[in-house]
Amino acid sequence: MSVLPTKYVPIDSSILGVASILLGDLGSNDTVSSLWDRVRTMPQVRTFDRYAEALTLLFAARIVDLRRGILVQTREAGASQ
């Protein structure tokens, strides 16, 4: 799977697109498992590999973090550092 969309890979099929879906669906008390249970039936996510790659991107970009087993958003969209 491509990280970024291309001429042949639409945004919702890229890791970045799946990451945006996960971020938009992230609840206040979600664990890795509870988020997976909710998004696993979405056609853009489809497999655990795609889910894990997108979640890894969010962790690497420090957009989400894991605190006491709960996924939390570390910065608001559009916020400056």
Structural summary, described in words:
This protein has 81 residues and is of the alpha+beta class. The chain is 40% helix and 10% strand. It has three helices and two strands. Strands 1-2 form a two-stranded antiparallel ribbon. The longest helix is centred in the middle third of the chain and has 13 residues, at 48-60. The model has no long low-confidence stretch (mean pLDDT 89).
What does the secondary structure layout of this molecule look like, with pairings?
Blueprint: H1 15-25, H2 32-39, H3 48-60, E1 64-67, E2 70-73
Antiparallel strand pairs: 1-2
Helix pairs in contact: 1-3
Question: What descriptors fit this protein?
Answer:
alpha+beta, 2 strands, 10% strand, two-stranded antiparallel sheet, single chain, 81 residues
Brief overview:
With 81 residues, this protein is α+β, with helices and mostly antiparallel strands. 40% of the residues lie in helices and 10% in strands.
